[in-house]
Amino acid sequence: PEVQKFAVIQGAFLSANRIVPLCSLQKADWDKVCDPILETIQEITQNKGRAEEVKKTLVCVAWLKLLSAEEDESIEVAWKESPIFSLQNGLPEFNWVVFLELIRSITSINIYTCLLLCLPPSQLCSEVERLVEHIRRSPVREEDVTFFFDVWWELWTCKDFHKDSTEEMFTQEVSRMSSKAIKQPAKRLKLDFPDQTTSDPDLVNIFFCTFRNLGAQITQPKLIFKALSVSINALYTAYLCAPEPEVSTKEKLEILSEIATIREKNNEKLGPKMIAESLKDLNTIQRPCRFKPLQLKFEDALQIMVDVAYNWNCNGLLEVEDKSNISYSEFKSKLGLQNVFAAFHKTKRSKDTPLCSIFEPKDWMTQKNVDLLPDVCAEIARTIISQKMDDYQNFALLFADEESWATCDENYIDFLETNQSAFREQNTLIKLTQSIVGKFSSGSVDVSHYRKLMKVTAEVLAAVMRISKRGFFGSNVPSAVTTSFERELNMAFNCIIQGGGGPSTASNLNTAVSLVARVAFQNPEAAVKAMCNSAISNKGSFHIMAKMLQQLPGLSGRASDSNQDAEGKDLLCSCVKDIIKTKQTSQDEKEQLVKFLSLLMQPVVMTEGDAGAEGFLLPQTVICAFVLPNLAVHSVDLELSLRLLHSALCLDHQGGASHWVMLCSPFPLLYVLAQLHNHTLRCHFEVSVWSMDTQELLVTVLSTLGSVVGAEVAKDPDTWSRALFWLYNKTEELDWTVRFLLKPVWGSHFKNEVPASLFAVCELPEQEWSGLDLPQYGLGTGLLAWTECCCISDSLQFTMLSHLSLDQSKPDHLGMFSKGLMVALTQTLPCCSFSQWSLLLQALRALIDSGRLHVPFSLEYCDYLPLLDLRSFACELRLSVLLLRVFQLLCGSSCSDWLSRDGWGHVGALYAHAVRDMIGSLKTKLPLSAAATGSSVLSQEVLFVLSQIYCHVQHVQVMLPGGQCEQLFLSSLELLSHYAAVMGVFPWSCSALESDNTRHFFTTITENLQNQEMKSVLQQKISQLVSSTA
């Protein structure tokens, strides 16, 4: 349909072209050809909803056609590259006269100026000069002068705007044509100004010089005041206007009320359109213009104004005939002159300035034009607020503060309900509440209206975005409000807590939110602190408290300044800190706190399609408040801090923007975490200050943070290079293994540094690896470094296994390697975490399976040679014997004083972990469900392997100092339970005699345990190992 409409317009142009060739049309001949074009456009634009769109397309197409002809763009290029080639090509050739007369005739000045602003500054000036040349071309008509001042004023009033698709296309086409050829500058209009000292384009200069040249030709009073209003306000906004508006919102409303009254007297209707235009004009004359004078000095511009005004005044053209009914242009002229004279006064310019002497004696400059009507002011304010016009929030504040406007009738309530979003600023809501309360105090408000107003106010409160820690009433809280606050606060939270930890339905949630909002209205800090107390102390309540807070984003107290967020200054965080300081929190309460804060950090999408949603708390706020201050070896809140950091890092990050963790000093944070990890590496040789879970969490957090920071460094290595080298140099003082955990941060920037002794047992390429001379890694410690590398990561372990220097064809090499590895295991085992030990067990299995680790299996826990095929279980048996030999060495006299009591408990737990791993492997090789298939080939072998592992465990349990390790005891029970399960599922795998011998053998072995309670439980379990064939 749009193409069809444009085809009709093309036809109209062709018809006009037959009357007079449009390519050579003179300005005086426009009236001869305009009818077919204008009538067609008027017919097509009868639908007002599409009129502007059709006009904009026409102006854009016509303009680009002329620019394309100026650039001498070939049809072949335009056909391929221009998206509007078909529209342009259907129009006949025409010149700039046709284009500019078309703009003037179809009153598309706003479209023309918007497209002007899409041009580069130099080209914008060239196009305005082209317009000026057209205006000054004979004959100069009144409508030409009007056109000029309309374009001038429209350019002055245009703010930065969001381009639509047509404007974007216009911009791209102009840019494309400019890049195709070196643009010859358009012929500049000679403005005959003597002090022109620079060649930079100056739009202010163009307009004022044209004004001077046209001034003598303007004789109509209406046009004179139009020219005066534009030029005097342009003078003020280009040279004299302060950066910030000096007019208050109340003064602005009074001026708007005067304008509305004046325009109504001139038969215009008060409505959103008139108010929007008036507000736009008023803002224009109070703010610096977007165009800076580059050539024209203020004194020269002022002299132009004086010369033109003096000429008008001498001819008696500056008088207002009907002073009681002035025009809008006359009023704007008065405002502009008042602004200029006020600026003169501030700058202490002489009062006898010629401009002042011309205008100050005029009666219309001092006479009051209209009386202010309160109803008109209120109506204008309501319209600005409801239409969300420029500065509407300040008008909302003014509206809220005017108690006389708080009629509290149906219309007033409906207005507040419809425009709740305008009253969500803190001061606005305070003023609104005070106005309403003041109206209530008069006793003239209907009860039903009172209830509705309270409901609306609560709804506004629920969505408010910022709340002061002092509450909405500041320090002067009305006594009527404070008397019942504590009672209401307790009642609200008791209702929520007694509801089973929180409401389950949306309606109940809304009720709970309303209760909280009501008390938060009086004292946000007390309300938030009560919610935090409930979330931490009442089991399970953290979930509902988080959901409620997410419905009240204003209670976060988050400031608009992002730097403040990054420093951890947050209302909720402050409340949580106070609770932690004043209350001894249990482990369960800390658990609830972590879950509570984790929920609040998760993004909440309040409306569908909201891609940029944020959580109630920003992750960086939580990190700065609870993590950074508490990362110390002896910090009581270290585990809490690590868990919060882990929760924050696990949040999904929206791609594109830099990760939030880069706002939290990521490199110092990595270094501190690395220091903490370094402290744990040898801690099992002494008293441990942290649990194993905390140490595991520390490694996880360090690795995760390293991956996140590494990804950001890879995006922009130049920005982070100094920080990267700083971190690398700082970690030099730490254990060499720490740098491998930070490998995602380094990337390929640095070589892998390992103890030099490792190169004796591992053939590593020198391009990627370098040796460190470390005193604790002397001659013969290569395998120690090798096992430590195997504990760090899967990838590093793969490298160690694939580059291991071992000749398996030489038995002495294999024997020496196996003995050396057992010694290295003895040294490495106490320093391993569970995840590191799992990696090391994985490496040991690989060595055993590949035949590179020789572990002879002896029958010391077997009276007779079993006639079984144990090849499928060779790895489990050899691994169990290897661990037994390691513990024999570790518990021997040469090593018995290595470990603290906690250290012995730790190595026992690691051995128990390995036992459970072996049990899991056996379950995989012989699932209990295999009995359904009748397969019992491996059942006897599994029982034998279980019996050997059980004996090895008891041997280690007896050797350990103290003779009791709970983890090993539990592993022993698990071994016996699985033994009994296999016997039960595969009854034929063990005869009555064999089960009797097994019970006797197990009982004898268990007798060596020192702990009587453990011994009794195990023997009771052993007594139940009875074959079903007995």
Summary tags:
single chain; 1030 residues; mainly alpha; two-stranded parallel sheet; elongated; GEMIN4
Question: How would you describe what is shown here?
Answer:
Among the domains are: 1-179, no CATH class; 203-243 and 288-357, no CATH class; 856-1024. Helix 45 (939-959) runs parallel beside helix 47 and helix 47 (992-1006) runs antiparallel to helix 48. It contains 48 helices and two strands. It is mostly helical. It starts with a helix and ends in a 7-residue tail after the last helix. The protein has a two-stranded parallel sheet with strand order 1-2.
Task: Furnish the topology, listing elements before pairings.
Elements: H1 2-19, H2 30-44, H3 48-70, H4 75-81, H5 85-89, H6 96-105, H7 109-116, H8 121-136, H9 142-157, H10 165-180, H11 203-215, H12 221-240, H13 249-265, H14 272-284, H15 298-314, H16 328-346, H17 354-359, H18 363-366, H19 374-386, H20 392-401, H21 410-418, H22 426-441, H23 447-462, H24 479-482, H25 485-498, H26 506-522, H27 524-537, H28 542-550, H29 562-566, H30 571-582, H31 587-601, H32 619-627, H33 638-649, H34 666-680, H35 692-715, H36 717-730, H37 738-741, H38 743-746, E1 752-755, E2 769-772, H39 782-790, H40 794-802, H41 811-828, H42 834-849, H43 874-890, H44 901-925, H45 939-959, H46 966-985, H47 992-1006, H48 1012-1023
Parallel strand pairs: 1-2
Helix pairs in contact: 1-2, 3-6, 3-10, 7-9, 8-9, 8-11, 9-12, 11-12, 11-15, 12-15, 12-16, 13-14, 13-19, 19-20, 20-22, 21-23, 22-23, 23-26, 25-26, 26-27, 26-28, 27-28, 27-30, 27-31, 28-31, 31-33, 32-33, 33-35, 34-35, 34-36, 35-36, 39-41, 41-43, 42-43, 43-45, 44-45, 44-46, 45-46, 45-47, 46-48, ...
